[in-house]
Amino acid sequence: MIRDKLKFNLLIVLVGLFLVGFFFSYIGLPSITGHAVVDGISKTKVSNLILEKDTKDYDLIYERQKAEDWIDSLKKSNNGGPGWIVVNDAPDTYHGYVYDNAMAIIAYTMSGDYSNAKDILNFLKLHQTEDGAFYDMMYTNGVSENGARHSGNQAWTLYAIAFYMYETGDFGASNSYLLMAEDTAAWLIERQESDGGITGGIGSFSGNELAWTSTEHNIDSYFAFKLFYYLPTKFSSLSFNTDYLSAMNECKRWILDEGWNYYENRFNRGENDPYKSLDTQTLGSLFLADINETIMQYDVINFAQINLHDTTSRTVGTNNVYYEGFKENEYGNHWLEGTMQMSTSYIRRGLPGYGRLYLDEVIKSDDPAYTLGHPNEDNDGDGGKQYYMEGPVIGEQPGTVLWMIFAINEYLNDREKIFFSTPFSLYDLNCDGEVNLADTGIFSSAFHDSTPDYNEGSTYFCSDYSHDGELTLADVSLFYQGFSGNGFSEENNCCVTIFE
Q1: N or C: where does the chain have the smaller number of CB atoms within 10 Å of the terminal CB?
Q2: Residue 382: what pLDDT?
Q3: Domain containing 322: what range?
Q4: In a domain? residue 224
Q5: Which of 396, 412, 428 is where one domain is finished?
Q6: Three-state SS across the chain?
Q7: Is the CB of residue 109 less than 8 Å from the CB of residue 169?
Q8: Is residue 36 part of a domain?
Q9: 416 and 433 in contact (C-beta within 8 Å)?
Q10: How far apart are CA 489 and CA 485, in angstroms?
């Protein structure tokens, strides 16, 4: 009988070990068997990178500083006016993109270089169009070639302005940055349709509206509206504008209803557009992390790893160099900026080994030990990085370098992160279809000084948990987060009930 009992206990242990192993194999690393991952990536390699993290951090700090210095070198001005990050690709060395400059504002703010961030903000304020948008491309004098104003670029700019204000409390002279952001937010809201999606923007000086709806643009807009809405949680001098909260929630609705591909567990490029695009997966994974959809987050990262992973090589001098990374889409070139987005996504998912692996692959593209090949190829050690590894755009580009800075920040965890989680999550506690100040009336003041008895089905009023002298949405969120681990459940994204 004792022997039988021992056998039974041993069986229980073995079953338990199997279940634990299965669990971690599912949530831990993307599949690396069969054809899931191209040869060259292994769990052993990734594990070694994790073990070496502490000893190699100084390399990343050095690379980040070199990258920041290179970005500084691209900032030009017109007759002493505000600075503008331009493209370092002859002959067009005096035009820059609002997307790159929005990311530069964020990167400067992350590093504490507020002076350079303000310089670009002042350029944007000087050249904001009358309708509240910014031209996608501008020369250092603010002139645009075609007048295009795409929604994604406006969302990135709104996020950058909000990010700077959130981190610094500087709203500009006479609130000029705040007013600039409000105009841009209004421009985006004007293009939000009944299904929640924000359309593509304006295609030219003629003002032609772009009817298509992009998943990437709406993810950008979600983060922009969210951070802009949350500013009053940190600065009591500001007031909540529920238009931004509504716009954020509508973007979220569209992303999940229209942008998500339920058949392949990944994001489409846009509405009725199932094209396999990398940036919708990378930015989409950050969005899913923000709304705590961790299984879907895993799915899109794994989809990109299986379907968009790329290995390429090129001859540099006498060396045949191989690069691991990702292509822009299922038919695209090896894309270094997108590879840095994937690095960021992996680290956010809790897989720093993969994040570091792809960081190293992009870092080595700027290796001065190799002999220069094509004049625009990046092997000069100056800190710049190429856009594509091959194809028509192989010169050094700000976007790749800025995303590398974001990925390094994510890996080192020593600065604020891109699309960081704002401190509060809001809920429709009174089930009226909106999240607003009325939701503060759901809770009982029994929570004010002591932990109450949990009574099944009870509801309670909220107290001033943020200690700002007011009862606001921030208090509802703090309350919910503080007690959500002690018996709260949320049903249908609506009322909160207490259970034993």
Answers
A1: N
A2: 78
A3: 45-412
A4: yes
A5: 412
A6: CHHHHHHHHHHHHHHHHHHHHHHHHHHCCCCCCCCCCCCCCCHHHHHHHHHCHHHHHHHHHHHHHHHHHHHHHCEECCCCCCCEECCCCCCCCCEEEHHHHHHHHHHHHHHCCHHHHHHHHHHHHHHCCCCCCCCCEEECCCCCCCCCEEHHHHHHHHHHHHHHHHHHCCCCHHHHHHHHHHHHHHHHHCCECCCCCEEEEECCCCCCEEEEEEHHHHHHHHHHHHHHHHHHHHCCCCCCCHHHHHHHHHHHHHHHHHHEECCCCEECCECCECCCEHHHHHHHHHHHHHCCCHHHHHHHHHHHHHHCEEEEEEEECCEEEEEEEEECECCCCEEHHHHHHHHHHHHHCCCHHHHHHHHHHHHHHHCCCCCCCCCCCCCCCCCCCECECCCCCCCECHHHHHHHHHHHHHHHCCCCCCCCCCCCCCCCCCCCCCCCHHHHHHCCHHHCCCCCCCCCCCCCCCCCCCCCCCCCHHHHHHHHHHHHHHCEEECCCCCEEECC
A7: no
A8: no
A9: no
A10: 9
For the chain, give the mean pLDDT: 80
Shared domain check, 313 and 221:
yes
pLDDT tens figures, 160-173:
999 999 999 999 99
Mean pLDDT for the stretch of residues 12-26: 53
Whether residue 122 has pLDDT greater than 60 = yes
- pLDDT per residue as tens digits for the range 34-62: 223 333 344 444 444 444 455 568 899 99
The tokens for 329 are: 């889409």
Query: What total number of domains does the chain contain?
Result: 3
CATH number of the domain residue 253 falls in:
1.50.10.10
Do 456 and 488 belong to one domain?
Answer: yes
Percent of the chain with pLDDT over 90: 57
Residue 130: predicted pLDDT: 96
CB 123 within 8 A of CB 83: yes
Could you report how far apart the first and last alpha carbons of the chain are, in Å?
A: 40
Asked if 262 and 358 sit in the same domain, the reply is yes
- Does residue 306 fall inside a structural domain? yes
Q: What is the pLDDT of residue 167?
A: 96
Would 345 be classed as within a structural domain? yes
In this structure, are 390 and 478 located in the same domain? no
Q: Between 176-189 and 114-127, two packed helices, what is the crossing angle to 10 degrees?
A: 60
Q: CA–CA separation, 218 vs 284, rounded Å?
A: 10
Q: Give the torsion sign (CA, 315, 317, 321, 327).
A: negative
Render pLDDT for 480-490 as a digit per residue (tens, 0 to 9): 555 444 333 33
